[in-house]
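Q: Can I see a sequence and its folded structure?
A: Here is a first one.
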Amino acid sequence: MDETTGLAEQLGDRLRRQGEQVTTAESCTGGGIAEAITRVAGSSAWFEAGYVTYSNEQKTRQLGVDGDLFATVGAVSREVVEAMARGALQHSGARYAVAVSGVAGPGGGSPDKPVGTVWLAWADGSLIHAERCRFAGDRQQVRQRSVERALRGLIRLAAGENPLEG
């Protein structure tokens, strides 16, 4: 079993015991977190919905992200991933959410947000934690590391721990 599937199984075990559900709001991972979760047999008991909002317009339309944020802080920012996580919770009814937006490459980077820059946010109700990561590697590696980081954070959050630690 690969590491990603193992993480998804750990998350599923914890959520199944709690009787809780999770939702995802994804941009640069293109649904990769939801795909990893749904690899696990029986995940319909604890996975509520996945939102793949690659464009800014869809982040606004599907998740309610304030369109002004894109002009002021950009799509790859704390403010946007926090809004994505809040929107996913609101629209899905799940208890937990993870949101991700980043620059997977090979192009699209800037001096402030070079390729490999990824923002993640984890939410449990009104409690939101956000983290900026910088992952090395090519496009696939950045996306894979983002998925794994998202799952690790969800496991910690569902355990009542800070997803930014550990």
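Q: Show me another, different protein.
A: A second, unrelated one:
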Amino acid sequence: MTDSVPAASAPPASSSVRVSDRFVAYVHQLCASTQARAALRRGLGLPVERCTYLHRYLVPWLRDHDDQHHGDVRRAYYAVASLIAARPRSARDTTPDQDASVSWYERPNLGASLGQAVAKGVLKENSAESALHLMARQSSDAIHPGLPALIRQLLAGGITIDWAVLLEDLAWWNRSRDRIATRWLESYFRTAANTTDPAPNDSAEENDR
């Protein structure tokens, strides 16, 4: 027996919930169907033009909720839908957290998630920092193909991803890359600060004077 495919409709609109949060909730709803989840997963790392199986689920949603004609916006939606659908089994039980009491800029972005990964030993400090600095120099076209492997590693290590924040950051990346990259780096160093100890280097430098 095959799963029935949910209709491509979004949760009721609410003025207190961001569009990105409503989209994430919608994709989680879709992923309750094995068939829909498999279709969405086929878009991992691909440009929209090669995401043939995703259109039936995402085109109606974008038509009603966001700018479907802006390439960066559309690709961000397709990318995040695919990433959510490709979550490892251990991460599928997590549901979107839409705590209105938390400021948008206090929610964890990708930099914060990488900082948590370093703090928990999921990623090495050098690897996480290198990934962030590399992305800070790249366009979204260069970032998208590498996201699936990075996100999979974070999720497998028990690191939470705020999908709505990632969605908006990717949608705006080419227009505000420096601002978003700075926010990622600041969040990373704030989160991973307790794992780094600059004192030995400072002492060595002092001894050389």
